[in-house]
């Protein structure tokens, strides 16, 4: 197994805020209030951090199918990253949120999908940063001149047809990352239909971290996936390809790389029902 570093702590990052090869990105967001994260960022954020909004920056245009958070246009996202001074393969990007990695993991996955491996998460997120009295301000940093050419790993994705064909294949595991109650169809707070994709197993993304927002140790990440170490392929989905990225992070920490994202998730799947 080959695990790359996936997170850093507040003390480590605090000592490197003036390093031009480190760029910090605030990903705070609330599905119930899409402006909330940016409002919080404008009030206070890690000194020098930029902001990316899930709806506006980390997702593309919503259509009748494709889910609530389709992937963004790679070229548009690449330009935004370059404007933060990110130089592909050189800059270390540090992403954070305050939602147990739900939104920071989306950026983590997107950058790796675009072949930028120098991306880590701030362990403990915004809350840990405040607890350690690390530097904050409310200054919006100016655009810089970086360089980012996107090279999407298209084989990291499946669409609804890919999921349907995988349902009948031995050696392919379909993972639903939502809460147990949503998976079972007992509740559905967002999408018009409750339920899950037939044949999917449930591994809620909140199992990846503890209640304080810290990643569980690598051994626990491996235990989460121990039954699927040797399968041919793992397809991960959630409501709309966001918290699924937390499970993809966990799988990477466990040393499992034969993974794919169904970005449309349940919101795309149920749009055809």
Task: For this entry, give a set of tags.
alpha/beta, 10 helices, 273 residues, Oxidized Rhodanese, domain 1, single chain, four-stranded parallel beta sheet, five-stranded parallel beta sheet
CATH secondary-structure class of the largest domain? Alpha Beta
Distance between the termini: 40 Å
Q: What is the makeup of the main sheet?
A: 5 strands, parallel
Number of strands: 11
How many domain modules?
2
Which stretches of 5+ consecutive residues score pLDDT under 50? none
Principal-axis shape equals globular
What is the correct CATH architecture of the largest domain? Answer: 3-Layer(aba) Sandwich
The gist of it:
With 273 residues, the chain is of the alpha/beta class. The chain is built from ten helices and eleven strands.
Could you please describe the fold and organization of this structure?
Helices cover 27% and strands 14% of the residues. The protein is an alpha/beta fold. It folds into two domains: 7-137, Oxidized Rhodanese, domain 1 (3-Layer(aba) Sandwich), CATH 3.40.250.10; 154-272, 3-Layer(aba) Sandwich (Oxidized Rhodanese, domain 1). The strands form three sheets. It has a five-stranded parallel beta sheet. Strands 9-8-10-11 form a four-stranded parallel beta sheet, covered by helices on one side. Strand 10, helix 9 and strand 11 form a beta-alpha-beta unit. The relative contact order is 0.17.
């Amino acid at each position: 197994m080959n695990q790359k570093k996936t997170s850093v702590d507040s003390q480590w990052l605090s000592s490197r805020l003036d390093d031009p090869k480190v760029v910090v990105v605030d990903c705070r967001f609330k599905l119930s209030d899409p402006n909330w994260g940016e409002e919080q960022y404008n009030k206070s954020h890690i000194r020098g951090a930029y902001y990316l909004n899930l709806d506006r920056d980390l997702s593309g245009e919503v259509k009748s199918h494709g889910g609530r958070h389709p992937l963004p246009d790679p070229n548009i996202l690449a330009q935004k990253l370059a404007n933060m001074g990110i130089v592909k393969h050189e800059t270390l990007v540090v992403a954070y949120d305050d939602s147990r990695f739900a939104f920071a993991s989306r950026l983590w996955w997107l950058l790796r999908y675009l072949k930028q491996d120098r991306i880590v998460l701030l362990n403990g997120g915004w809350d840990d940063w405040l607890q350690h009295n690390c530097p904050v301000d409310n200054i919006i940093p100016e655009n810089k001149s970086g360089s980012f050419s996107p090279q999407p790993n298209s084989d990291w994705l499946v669409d609804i047809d890919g999921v349907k064909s995988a349902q009948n294949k031995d050696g392919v595991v379909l993972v639903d990352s939502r809460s147990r109650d949503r998976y079972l169809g007992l509740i559905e707070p967002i999408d018009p239909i409750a339920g899950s994709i037939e044949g999917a197993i449930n591994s809620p993304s909140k199992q990846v971290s503890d209640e304080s927002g810290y990643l569980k140790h690598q051994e626990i990440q491996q235990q989460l996936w121990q039954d699927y170490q040797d399968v041919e392929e793992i397809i991960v989905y959630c409501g709309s390809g966001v918290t699924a990225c937390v499970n993809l992070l966990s799988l990477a920490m466990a040393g499992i790389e034969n993974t794919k994202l169904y970005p449309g998730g349940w919101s795309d799947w149920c749009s055809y029902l």
